Predict the structure.
Amino acid sequence: MELKICHMYPDVLNLYGDRGNVKCLQQRLRWRGIDSTVERLPIGAQARLGDFDLVFIGGGQDFEQQVLLEDLHRGKDREIRAAIEDGIPFLTICGGYQMLGHYYETYDGQRCDFIGALDLYTVGSKQRMIGNYKFQCGPESGGSLVVGFENHSGKTRLGSGVQPLGQVLAGFGNNGEDGTEGARYRNVFGTYSHGPLLPKNPALCDFILLTALQRKYGAAELSPLDDTAELAAHDEMAERI
Ligand code: GLN
């Protein structure tokens, strides 16, 4: 078994160590004797996303999101839409999550017309939503409690056909108003959670890995790991928040 991972825009979308999610995905596969490769896809590079088993996109500031717009609309937007419709799993963080929607309008009125792969949109607000937060994933996402760190001014609203990744227990989430956090559509996992997200949320990491393995190989199982250290970090934050 092997998973081919694509890390999109590692050059401009990597806030708060988001690339650590790729390292965590690979390590939790390696501990199970499953191989993986990672191909970086920076601005200007081309690749067929259909050749990959999992795609990761990290977060970025308003400026970086505008920097990548031209590159995105030179064909990567079509690739992303097709890959999502083909059921390829995506893990997207904050700015990387926002760009899957119809648009992101910054607080100063700059409008970024994004991909429209997910029925959602984001509008920047005067309020920055910053801090440690926690949310409960829905059963379709494994149902785990997730702890994370958010820092965004964008308020995301979900449209029809898109489910939240989870319900906020403490913190802001998508917009600080409707109690939703993130988004799920087909095998896309969108979230505002930086940190990186996955190392201290092993259940969610394994759920995403299983989604990719089962899509590629049909049946697949992940042997249990000793997550004592990961869960100690998780539980400390869950109690603190
Ligand atoms: N620039 C976007 C916002 O402020 C995304 C920020 C991020 O990726 N942390 O909402």
In short: Helices lie at 20-30, 62-67, 69-85, 95-98, 202-217, 228-240. The radius of gyration is 17 Å. The first helix runs from residue 20 to 30.
